[in-house]
Amino acid sequence: MPGPQIQCAHCKTIVSGNFCSECGQPLVTQRLSIASILHEVFHFFTHLDHGFPYTLKKLCTAPGTMQREYIEGSRAKQQKPFSMFFICATIAALVIYWVNLLLIQHFNAGDNNEAAFFHKYWTMLQILMLPVYALITWLLFKKAGYNYGEIIVFQLYLFSFLFIVLSLIHLLKFIFPHLETRWIELPAIILYTTITNLNFFTQLKKGLTILLTIISISLCFVMASYIQDLLVKVFS
Question: Which domain does 180 fall in, by range?
C-alpha cells in the first residue's frame, strides 16, 4: 500500500514516499540545530566522510602505491586530495599551536610568536608553497612521465600524511619541553618520502629515485624552514 500523502515543504506538491517526485527534496527533514549547522559547515569545507580514515590508513600502509592507484583511476574510496591536504594541515597547525601555548603556560618554554604564526598563517603558507614543492619534484622526476597536475595530487597526499607525523613529533615536547623538533622531523620526512617515492616512481631505478628524493627534500626543507622563520619574525 502507498504511504501517507505529505505536502512537500519546497514546492507544496502532495506526494507520498521519502522524496518529492516533483523537486526531489526529502519529505521529512530534521529540525535545524547548532549541531546540524556545524556539521553542514564542516562537511562543506572538508567533505569529511568515510574516505578520510581509509585514505589515512592507505597513506600509512601503502605510501606511494595509494597515490599511483589514485592517479590511475582508483578513486571511489579516497578522500579528495585537496580536502585531505586541508584537513591534515589544519590539524597540524592546531596541534602545534596548542603545544606551544601549553609549553608557554606550564613549562616556561615555547615561543609566543611561533604559536601565533601556526594559529593564523601556517595552513595558508603550506597551501601557497605546495605548487613550489610540486614543481621541484616534477622537474627532478620528469623522466617518470607524470605531468605537473599529477605530481600536485601526489604531493597533496604525501604532505597530508607528513602533517600528521609532524603533529605527533611535536607532542614529544610535553616530555622534552626544549626539544628542537626539526632534527627529528627531517629524518622522519626523509624516510617516509623515500619509501613513498620508491613505490610511486616505479619507472625509475631505485638508486636514482633515492638520490633525487634526497635532493628534493633538502631543497624543500631548507626553503620551508627559511620562509617559516622569516615570516614568524615579520608577523611578530
Answer: 49-235
Cα separation, 90 vs 120, in Å, equals 10
SS (H, E, C) the chain: CCCCCEECCCCCCEECCCECCCCCCECCCCCCCHHHHHHHHHHHHHCCCCHHHHHHHHHHHCCCHHHHHHHCCCCCCCCCHHHHHHHHHHHHHHHHHHHHHHHHHHCCCCCHHHHHHHHHCHHHHHHHHHHHHHHHHHHHCHHHCCCHHHHHHHHHHHHHHHHHHHHHHHHHHHCCCCCCCHHHHHHHHHHHHHHHHHHHCCCCCHHHHHHHHHHHHHHHHHHHHHHHHHHHHHHC
Task: Confirm whether 10 is domain-assigned.
Answer: no
What is the number of structural domains in the chain? 1
Q: What is the pLDDT of residues 35-67, one digit of tens each?
A: 655 565 565 555 555 688 899 999 999 999 999
- Rounded Cα gap, residues 200 and 24, in angstroms: 43
Asked, for residue 123, whether it belongs to a domain, the answer is yes
pTM beyond 0.85: the answer is no
Per residue in 87-108, pLDDT (tens digit) is 898 888 888 888 878 877 777 7
In a domain, 56, yes or no: yes
